[in-house]
Structure formats: structure tokens, C-alpha cells
Write a structure and sequence with these properties.
Blueprint (H helix, E strand, L loop, with lengths): L5 E7 L8 E6 L2 E7 L24 E3 L5 H4 L2 H6 L5 E5 H32 L13 H8 L2 E4 L5 E4 L2 E7 L7 E9 L2 E7 L22 E5 L13 H15 L3 E4 L5 H14 L7 E5 L1 H12 L6 H8 L10 E3 L3 H6 L7 E5 L9 H8 L6 E4 L8 H6 L4 E4 L2 E4 L3 E4 L9 H8 L8 E5 L3 H15 L3 E2 L6 E3 L2
Helix pairs in contact: 3-4, 3-7, 5-6
Length: about 475
Amino acid sequence: MPAMNMQISFLGAAQNVTGSSYLVEAKGFRLLVDCGMYQERKLKSRNWDPFPADPESIDAILLTHAHLDHCGLVPKLVRAGFKGKVYCTRATADIVEIVLLDSAKIQTEDVAYKKKRHKREGRKGPYPLEPLYTIEDAEASIQLLTGVDYEKEVVLAEGVVATFRNAGHILGSSSVKIVVTDGGEQRSILFSGDVGRWDLPILEDPESASQADYVVVESTYGNRLHKPTATIPDSLATIINETREAGGNVVIPSFAIERTQELLYHLNGLLSEKKIPPLLAFVDSPMAIRVTEVFRRHPELFDEEARALLERGDHPCDFPGLTLSRTVHQSKSINHIRGTALIIAGSGMCTGGRVKHHLVNNIGREESTVLFIGYQAVGTLGRIILEGVEKIRIHGKEHKVKARIEKINGFSAHADRNELLQWLSGITEPPKRVFVTHGEPESANGFASWLNGKTGWSCSVPSYRDCVTLD
């Protein structure tokens, strides 16, 4: 009997952090695990390149979670002919709908703005002045979403089965194990997705990895250790109180999914304990508001502490003085407020959205603070600000950076080096090979070397478009 032919191609997040996408081929069946958008400036052009695999030839897509760098190119594939099902957990499906519609809307608006500005300046943009996909493409993608339950086998094709397990990263996030059976031979490959952390607010802890022949593991923070999460409330209180004393605003670029809700949880606690005074606080992100509503629909995914708050009638994502800013008019009105306000706005890496307008109004004010609470990918505006530049360019204009720039690291929803090992500890028999992805080169290579030294496992860091036969 001929040996089973199974291959994996690394079509994204290979020695970089965004654009997650892996093509698995076995028994004539082709599936993608994740289909993410690139967000690093130097790699964004890949979003416009023809997809490395023919979309019409792909039979199914499995999404580990709803972050844009894991699901953001699904509408592009649908536009190019993909017609299969998109499998994910039910909470992920709810959030993916929000994320894709928001992405399509932002792209359409950005193109209209760029056309207007480029026409005024008499120049052409570096990319085609048309959106990557439209709202209609996003709506067509949403129709393909198929919700699944944790721990239940999903039959994708004869002899091809997938199982989703809680990854503890964001609401509904998963690791995915694919098992292929051909005759008497069986082969398995486990995709970590983005691994969360233990003892974080609201969500249950990650489920440890399961046994697999091959493992694809993320390494966003594979070469570092996080500060203890217990320091977050005190750090947050100090920054808020000092900025209030200075008379400025606290602008917090925040990811709409999970990070905003976790931040609201901490603010709720600080107010309850009177560690910060009552302040006007705004969630100025329509997407974050809609995601918070998804949280309300899925309390079954909350941990014991969050469920106890609910039982007392205190939702973990709400507190007195919080305003949900849904409209553009409401967003603009924030700029007329006198005194200190907490402005939580998307996007988390300052790549688009309403946070750019709040940066314009606060980055030049010495009394204001820009507080980062999440990972900033290389080349993003958030990373550029964090690196200490004197000037930044927003909406075609330069602005001097005078505001106080702060970062709280403990907020990360990504496992650090030791937590990744804790997740991998569920694998008791050495896998044939571990592929380390979703990390910048220093992080991915550092984690691969460290993991090999700790376990003796064969570890490698694939490059973009590498194709490996899983013998």
C-alpha cells in the first residue's frame, strides 16, 4: 500500500506575526487553517497579491479565532471563487461577522479618502485604489460560517476529522487538531492558533495541547516572559491618576476583541475599590461595542469569577460613567470635553479607525497620555510611536509627539515562553516535528531553540511558502 501523502504549506505568519494561513493537503482534500490579513506595513502588499493557492480548489477553511490576522482574507478568497464551508466555534462566528463587515467598511472608506487626497496631491497610491474586498464580499463570507462545539469531532471529508479545543486567547478561540485516516494509517497535526494565558479575567484557562504527530505552534512572545498580571491594576491606576492631575486625556488604542473587555473589567474593579476617581470613559469603537454585546450572549465561556459578578448583577464589562460611542457625531463630541477622559478606541495598533483622530487631538499635548496595552507589530503606527519618534504622520500630516507614551505589558492575551511550554505539556509522546510560526524571526528562532533544549523535540522555523511533506 502506498504511503499516505500529506503536506502542509506555510502561506502566512512565517517568521512574522500576522497573515496566519496554512494549507493542509491530504487524500485529495485541501483545507486552510486560518486565512488572515497582513497588518505589518512592510508585508501589507501581500494582501493584494494573488492568493498562493487557487481559492476554487480549497474545500474548507478552519478558523482558530476571530482576529483579523487570522480571518481577514476570507472575503478575498470568496470573491476569487472559494465556495466551501468556514468552520469555527459559535462565539468565533459571531465575532467574525462583526470583524469582516468592519474590515470591508474601513477599506471602502479608506480607498475613498485616499482617492480624494491623492487627486488633491496629484499622485497615485502604492496599491490599487480599490478595496481588497467589499461589504458584499464580507456578507457572502458570513453565509459560509459553520459553528461547531468544543471537543466534538467535525467530519470534513471521508477520513478527515477536525477537533476544536479552547485556546483561552479570546472569546471562542481554539486550537485545532486535524486527523487524517487512510486505510490502516493515521496522521495528526495540531495547530495552536494563538494560545492564551492562565488566570486572566473573564475567560476560562486554555486547554492543554493534545497528542499529535506534528505541531504548529505560535511564538509571538516565544523569547520573553510577561510581567505578573497582578501588577496591571496598580499600573493602570497610577497612569490614570497622574494624567488626571496633569489635566490631560488618556488615549488607549485597544483591540476591539478581548482587550477592550479586559480593560473594562479592570476599570470596573478600580472604581469599585476607589483606586481611581469617577471619570468620563468612552469606548469609541463600534466594533468593540458590538463585540462586548457578543460577550453578553456567551456567558457560558466565562470563568467562575466573571460568572459570580454576573450573578450579583454586576456585568464585568460595564461601570458607571461609561459611554459607548456608536456614531461619528458622538466620537467627534469627545474632543470638546474639558477635563480628563478615558478614550478607548480602535484600532489596537493604530493602523486605522477612530483612534487616529484621537491621536491627532492628543499626541501634541504634554498633559495627555497615550497608553498601549497590546502587542504592536513592526511597522505599525503604534510600534513607531512606542519606539520614541519625535514626529508621526497621520492622515497625510505630521504631528509632533509631546504626549506621555506608556505601555502596560501584562495585558497580553498571548502566552509567553513558559506558558507556551505549559500548553505544550499536554503532549506526552514526542511529536515528529514542531513548526514554530507566528513570531518575528528573533522570537520564533529563539523559542524553537529553547524548546528543543527543554524537550529534545525536533523544531524548525518555516519560511513563507515553504511546503513540507509530513512523512
